[in-house]
Amino acid sequence: MTTRKRPNILLTGQLYDGYDEEYQCPILDEDRVVDELDEKMVEGGVIVDYHGCDLFPERWFHIVIVLRTDNTQLYIRLESRGYTGKKLQDNVQCEIFQTIYEEAMEAYSKEIVHQLPSNTPEDLESNLAQIMQWIEQWMKDHN
Q1: Does 35 share its domain with 62?
Q2: pLDDT tens digit string along 113-135?
Q3: What domain range is 27 assigned to?
Q4: Are residues 37 and 75 in the same domain?
Q5: Is residue 143 situated within a structural domain?
Q6: What does the pLDDT look like over 23-49, one tens digit per residue?
Q7: Shared-domain flag, residues 37 and 84
Q8: How far apart, in whole angstroms, are the C-alpha atoms of residue 18 and residue 33?
Q9: Is the pLDDT of residue 93 over 90?
Q10: E-state strands within the chain
Q11: What is the distance, to the nearest Å, from the Cα of residue 26 to the centroid of all Cα atoms in its chain?
């Protein structure tokens, strides 16, 4: 597996359809994103980092990891990034109701969906070790 740094295809590939003033972010054109990524995903060895999952085809993934954060920690983290108002409230509420985890469970086979805590630097290191372990096991099982 190789690590490749790629530009943000959302911005460089013109894969957005306007700008959401309320959330202060580009509006993703989901169909164009999937079309753009489809060929790259066939190559394999790709990690997709996104805050949702139901737009991506199940065939792309061998594992789906949902990072979970304590609501207080998430609020502080997002506030320090400049999130305010509805954007801040909706993100925290999404975590409270496990929205992304539920989306993943509905969109993909339950066997490939996993949750990991993401509250502390120690969690980050532990998650990295766990993910590397999964990758190594997958490679052994499929090579």
Answers
A1: no
A2: 999 999 999 999 999 999 999 98
A3: 1-46
A4: no
A5: no
A6: 888 888 999 999 989 988 988 888 899
A7: no
A8: 14
A9: yes
A10: 16-20, 25-28, 64-68, 113-117
A11: 17
